[in-house]
Amino acid sequence: MNAIVTGYRSGIGKAISEKLQENGYNVIKLQSRLENVTSLEKEIKDILKSNDIHILVNCAGVGIFEPHETISISTIKKLIDINLTAPIILTKLLLRSLKKCKGHIINISSIEATKHSKYSALYTATKSGLRDFSLSLFEEVRKDGVKVTSINPDITKTDFFDHLKFKPSEDKEAYLEPELIAQLVLDILKIDGVVTDLTVRPQKFKIEKSVPKK
């Protein structure tokens, strides 16, 4: 079966891509930048000429956690484009193929989609939008046999935090591993029913200050 996983170069997306490949899935790796809609649309059309898509995992994401008035307009646009607009557009471009295959869409949202945190208004808006898009889309396409899942991971130890002012604690009970999320994706794909919404959290909440990488 063919799968498209965005964000496959690092973090959770890389772990999901590798887990799917290890279990016999053919992962098609997009080369277009998700913000470039024209290029993305052309690439998807070219892929669909010779491939059906059975699984779409929207995993690419960026974060910023700063006072809202300090965030540049270009950064606001980039965050919305990558975290929310790109998954919605990709889903639109692939939906007919996914319906044909009775496929599965898995959107990697965030714990922030389920709560409200200081300095997270922009990020939360994008991830809440993605989660609600997932839940609403399922009601639309369930009659066509398409499954839609939103996974909302809490703090996960990846390079997501390289450019932020905080990072997971070294306490192993205070963060998730990307391989855990990848295994959950595989498990969700195998069950007969539909997991529409899944939140995963570590046992403890502990973060540390860090210096963002340039």
UniProtKB/TrEMBL annotation:
Domain of life from the UniProt record: Bacteria
Signal sequence, start to end: none
Pfam families for the chain: adh_short
InterPro entries, alphabetized: NAD(P)-bd_dom_sf, SDR, SDR_fam
SUPFAM superfamilies xrefs: NAD(P)-binding Rossmann-fold domains
Family as reported in the entry's similarity comment: Belongs to the short-chain dehydrogenases/reductases (SDR) family.
PANTHER family: 3-OXOACYL-(ACYL-CARRIER-PROTEIN) REDUCTASE, 3-OXOACYL-[ACYL-CARRIER-PROTEIN] REDUCTASE FABG
Protein name: Short-chain dehydrogenase
